[in-house]
Amino acid sequence: MQTRSEAEDSDRGQWVYPENEAAYWREQHAKQPYAKNSSYEQYEHAYRTGYNSFQKYPGKKFDEVEESVANDYETGKPDAALPWDTVRPAVSSVWDKMSGVIGPRDFDRGIRDSI
User: Rounded to whole angstroms, how far apart are CA atoms 14 and 57?
Assistant: First the structure.
């Protein structure tokens, strides 16, 4: 029988709150290296694809499902959305954030203050 903390650990990363993710990326978008000269609105579908696909493919790494995620992005892409090759870093960043992967230069993500 799993203890409460074991059950919580196994569920970590599987619950997605779209409103929270949208608010986070709206606030953080301008700080991202790929965001030069681009508005949040141009990347909004990419961010949404990122957090929806993270939940759709639980326990997978981005690299393992990238082709499927790209297809999901293209299938639901509004006319004004940017091409996959342009938004791929944004979708990957969503997965990094949600899976707890933090790079040494990601100070604004706030999970670790030093590495």
Answer: 9
Distance between CA atoms of residues 9 and 80, nearest Å: 39
Average pLDDT over residues 22-39: 94
Domain that holds residue 74: 16-100
Q: Please, are residues 2 and 10 in contact by the beta-carbon 8 Å criterion?
A: yes
C-alpha distances in angstroms, 85 versus 41, 73, 82?
A: 17, 11, 8
Number of domains observed in the structure of the chain: 1
Q: What is the pLDDT of residues 54-102, one digit of tens each?
A: 999 999 999 999 999 999 999 999 988 899 999 999 999 999 999 987 5
Residue 9 lies in a domain: no
The Cα–Cα gap between 80 and 16 comes to: 25
